[in-house]
Amino acid sequence: MAKYPFLKFLMLRFLAQNNEASGYDFIRYCKEKGIPASAGTVYPQLRKLTEDGILAMKIDRKSNHRGRRIYSLTEEGKNFVSEIEKNKEGMKNILNRLGIVMSKGLDTIPPAISKTMGPIFYQLHSTDWKDKNDVKELLRNLENLEAELRRWINEE
Hints:
Oligomer: single chain
Order of helices and strands: HEHHEEHHHH
CATH class of the largest domain: Mainly Alpha
Number of helices: 7
Helix content: 55-70%
Strand content: 5-15%
Low-confidence stretches: none
Number of domains: 2
Shape: globular
Structural class: mainly alpha
Radius of gyration: 18 Å
Distance between the termini: 43 Å
CATH superfamily of the largest domain: Winged helix-like DNA-binding domain superfamily/Winged helix DNA-binding domain
Largest sheet: 3 strands, antiparallel
Number of strands: 3
CATH topology of the largest domain: Arc Repressor Mutant, subunit A
Protein backbone atom coordinates (compact mmCIF):
# COMPACT_ATOMS: atom_id res chain seq x y z
CA MET A 1 0.00 0.00 0.00
CA ALA A 2 2.53 2.52 -1.11
CA LYS A 3 0.85 5.50 -2.72
CA TYR A 4 -2.28 7.06 -1.16
CA PRO A 5 -2.28 4.84 1.96
CA PHE A 6 -4.99 6.89 3.66
CA LEU A 7 -7.24 6.56 0.63
CA LYS A 8 -6.74 2.80 0.50
CA PHE A 9 -7.55 2.35 4.17
CA LEU A 10 -10.59 4.56 3.76
CA MET A 11 -11.74 2.45 0.78
CA LEU A 12 -11.38 -0.75 2.77
CA ARG A 13 -13.27 0.67 5.71
CA PHE A 14 -16.00 1.99 3.40
CA LEU A 15 -16.39 -1.43 1.78
CA ALA A 16 -16.41 -3.16 5.16
CA GLN A 17 -19.31 -0.93 6.23
CA ASN A 18 -21.23 -1.17 2.93
CA ASN A 19 -20.45 -4.77 1.86
CA GLU A 20 -20.08 -3.69 -1.77
CA ALA A 21 -19.84 -0.47 -3.75
CA SER A 22 -18.70 1.01 -7.02
CA GLY A 23 -15.78 3.38 -7.43
CA TYR A 24 -18.29 6.14 -8.07
CA ASP A 25 -20.03 5.37 -4.74
CA PHE A 26 -16.70 5.78 -2.97
CA ILE A 27 -15.85 9.03 -4.80
CA ARG A 28 -19.27 10.44 -3.84
CA TYR A 29 -18.69 9.40 -0.20
CA CYS A 30 -15.29 11.16 -0.21
CA LYS A 31 -16.85 14.30 -1.66
CA GLU A 32 -19.49 14.32 1.11
CA LYS A 33 -16.70 14.02 3.70
CA GLY A 34 -14.56 16.73 2.08
CA ILE A 35 -11.79 14.31 1.13
CA PRO A 36 -10.25 14.99 -2.26
CA ALA A 37 -10.56 11.84 -4.35
CA SER A 38 -10.82 11.71 -8.10
CA ALA A 39 -11.40 8.93 -10.59
CA GLY A 40 -7.70 9.21 -11.44
CA THR A 41 -6.71 8.24 -7.90
CA VAL A 42 -9.58 5.94 -6.88
CA TYR A 43 -9.83 3.55 -9.82
CA PRO A 44 -6.11 2.66 -9.99
CA GLN A 45 -6.21 1.92 -6.25
CA LEU A 46 -9.29 -0.28 -6.63
CA ARG A 47 -7.59 -2.11 -9.50
CA LYS A 48 -4.42 -2.64 -7.44
CA LEU A 49 -6.35 -3.88 -4.39
CA THR A 50 -8.21 -6.31 -6.68
CA GLU A 51 -4.93 -7.55 -8.20
CA ASP A 52 -3.55 -8.03 -4.67
CA GLY A 53 -6.52 -10.22 -3.72
CA ILE A 54 -7.90 -7.78 -1.14
CA LEU A 55 -10.98 -6.92 -3.23
CA ALA A 56 -13.23 -8.86 -5.55
CA MET A 57 -14.86 -7.20 -8.55
CA LYS A 58 -18.01 -8.10 -10.44
CA ILE A 59 -19.81 -6.41 -13.31
CA ASP A 60 -23.39 -5.25 -12.71
CA ARG A 61 -24.99 -4.96 -16.15
CA LYS A 62 -28.36 -3.81 -14.77
CA SER A 63 -27.22 -0.20 -14.48
CA ASN A 64 -26.05 0.24 -18.10
CA HIS A 65 -25.02 -1.77 -21.16
CA ARG A 66 -21.29 -1.66 -20.37
CA GLY A 67 -21.87 -2.60 -16.79
CA ARG A 68 -20.74 -1.08 -13.56
CA ARG A 69 -17.85 -2.51 -11.56
CA ILE A 70 -18.89 -3.44 -8.05
CA TYR A 71 -16.20 -4.11 -5.46
CA SER A 72 -16.34 -6.10 -2.23
CA LEU A 73 -13.83 -7.40 0.27
CA THR A 74 -12.44 -10.90 -0.25
CA GLU A 75 -11.87 -13.14 2.78
CA GLU A 76 -8.27 -11.90 2.80
CA GLY A 77 -9.57 -8.32 2.66
CA LYS A 78 -11.99 -8.95 5.53
CA ASN A 79 -9.14 -10.42 7.60
CA PHE A 80 -6.96 -7.42 6.76
CA VAL A 81 -9.64 -4.93 7.84
CA SER A 82 -10.25 -6.98 10.98
CA GLU A 83 -6.54 -6.77 11.86
CA ILE A 84 -6.59 -3.01 11.32
CA GLU A 85 -9.62 -2.67 13.63
CA LYS A 86 -7.97 -4.86 16.30
CA ASN A 87 -4.86 -2.72 16.23
CA LYS A 88 -6.70 0.63 16.22
CA GLU A 89 -6.37 1.13 19.98
CA GLY A 90 -2.67 0.31 19.86
CA MET A 91 -2.24 2.76 17.00
CA LYS A 92 -4.07 5.46 18.97
CA ASN A 93 -1.69 4.89 21.88
CA ILE A 94 1.34 5.15 19.60
CA LEU A 95 0.02 8.33 17.98
CA ASN A 96 -0.79 9.84 21.39
CA ARG A 97 2.77 9.09 22.55
CA LEU A 98 4.04 10.87 19.45
CA GLY A 99 1.89 13.88 20.31
CA ILE A 100 -0.82 13.22 17.74
CA VAL A 101 -3.99 13.29 19.80
CA MET A 102 -6.67 10.86 18.66
CA SER A 103 -8.72 10.53 21.84
CA LYS A 104 -11.45 13.01 20.87
CA GLY A 105 -13.66 12.37 17.90
CA LEU A 106 -14.22 14.82 15.09
CA ASP A 107 -17.74 15.34 16.42
CA THR A 108 -16.33 17.83 18.94
CA ILE A 109 -15.02 20.03 16.12
CA PRO A 110 -17.45 22.55 14.58
CA PRO A 111 -18.77 21.05 11.30
CA ALA A 112 -17.41 23.77 8.99
CA ILE A 113 -13.93 23.37 10.46
CA SER A 114 -14.11 19.58 10.38
CA LYS A 115 -15.06 19.63 6.69
CA THR A 116 -12.14 21.94 5.92
CA MET A 117 -9.73 19.72 7.88
CA GLY A 118 -10.62 16.52 6.00
CA PRO A 119 -8.64 17.26 2.85
CA ILE A 120 -5.63 18.33 4.89
CA PHE A 121 -5.36 14.99 6.72
CA TYR A 122 -5.52 13.21 3.39
CA GLN A 123 -3.02 15.51 1.73
CA LEU A 124 -0.48 15.21 4.52
CA HIS A 125 -0.21 11.51 3.64
CA SER A 126 -0.33 11.82 -0.12
CA THR A 127 1.45 15.07 -1.06
CA ASP A 128 4.29 14.58 -3.49
CA TRP A 129 6.74 17.09 -2.05
CA LYS A 130 8.67 17.16 -5.33
CA ASP A 131 5.55 18.33 -7.17
CA LYS A 132 5.09 22.07 -6.56
CA ASN A 133 1.42 21.88 -7.63
CA ASP A 134 0.74 19.26 -4.94
CA VAL A 135 2.36 21.50 -2.34
CA LYS A 136 0.43 24.54 -3.61
CA GLU A 137 -2.85 22.63 -3.26
CA LEU A 138 -1.94 21.69 0.32
CA LEU A 139 -1.15 25.34 1.02
CA ARG A 140 -4.54 26.43 -0.39
CA ASN A 141 -6.30 23.97 1.90
CA LEU A 142 -4.28 25.18 4.89
CA GLU A 143 -5.22 28.77 4.01
CA ASN A 144 -8.89 27.72 3.78
CA LEU A 145 -8.61 26.12 7.22
CA GLU A 146 -7.01 29.27 8.62
CA ALA A 147 -9.84 31.41 7.16
CA GLU A 148 -12.48 29.05 8.60
CA LEU A 149 -10.82 29.13 12.04
CA ARG A 150 -10.71 32.93 11.95
CA ARG A 151 -14.42 33.07 11.01
CA TRP A 152 -15.24 30.71 13.87
CA ILE A 153 -13.20 32.78 16.38
CA ASN A 154 -14.90 36.00 15.28
CA GLU A 155 -18.37 34.44 15.67
CA GLU A 156 -17.95 34.13 19.44
